[in-house]
Amino acid sequence: MSVRAAVLSLLQLSLFDEAPPPAAAPAPAPAAPPVTDFRHPRSQRDIVLGDHRVAYELRRSRRRSIGFVVGAEGLAVSAPRWVGVGEIESALREKSAWILRKLHEQRERARRLDSARVDWRAGTFIPFLGGQVMLVLDGRTSGAVLDAQAAPPQLHLGLPPSAAPEQIRDTVQSWLQRQARRVFEERCQIYAARLGVRVKRLSLSSATTRWGSASADGSIRLNWRLVHFALPVVDYVVTHELAHLREMNHSPAFWDVVRTALPDFEAARGALRHEVLPAFE
Fold first, then answer.
1. DSSP single-letter state for residue 78
2. Domains observed in the chain
3. DSSP labels for 156-212?
4. pLDDT for 221-255, tens place per residue?
5. Inter-residue contact 95 to 81 (CB < 8 Å)
């Protein structure tokens, strides 16, 4: 065969040969592993629950069953020494919805506590009657004086620039409590007249779980921290407690009394649950 015929034969084979197989499709990228959303500082093991990786502390004890505790640090598991890890993780998966809900609640609580921390120094803002007042250290001032005309409003504290954070905190708290009594007395007078009741004694409370209380003898206690909220919220709590002087319960009749003074009280009641207040600790 001539060289020319051999070349034509090669070209012909190349031209009419079977098409090469298509390139293999790239393998799908592996799914990203769950992020370690929750990690106990003393964790020894971790597990994927739903879309979350949870690193938990495992404690061996003499108890007879597996127990779970979700606290500020995260998930801690207590189990008898004879229970295997597989059984423990099976129990964790069974309770995963409850565990994740509690972990999210703890994270939200930690976020709120962090937001509540106050840097007690000049220039810090404190909520007051729904607005914000800026702290100013002013040795020329006696006590604490609010300049509501300033922009932003300023609370002048009679303290030197070198004042300790505890001094600033205590001075602000004393001023807020004085304002609380003044505001509460005014609002009680207005809403007692609307509801036809008489307040015999008003006192301030520092309770951590209650905004107010009322006694059948006409005594009212209101949490001084209410002074952080806007007046509609203060008015709701005041009206709520005054309404108890007519209905010492939470029956439909009680809420009808509240509604006669505050027809749209639901909005103010909701604000009490979501506001993050400064921590005086």
1. E
2. 36-116 (no CATH), 125-274 (3.30.2010.10)
3. EES--TT--HHHHHHHHHHHHHHHHHHHHHHHHHHHHHHHT---SEEEEE--SS-SE
4. 999 999 999 999 999 999 999 999 999 999 999 99
5. no
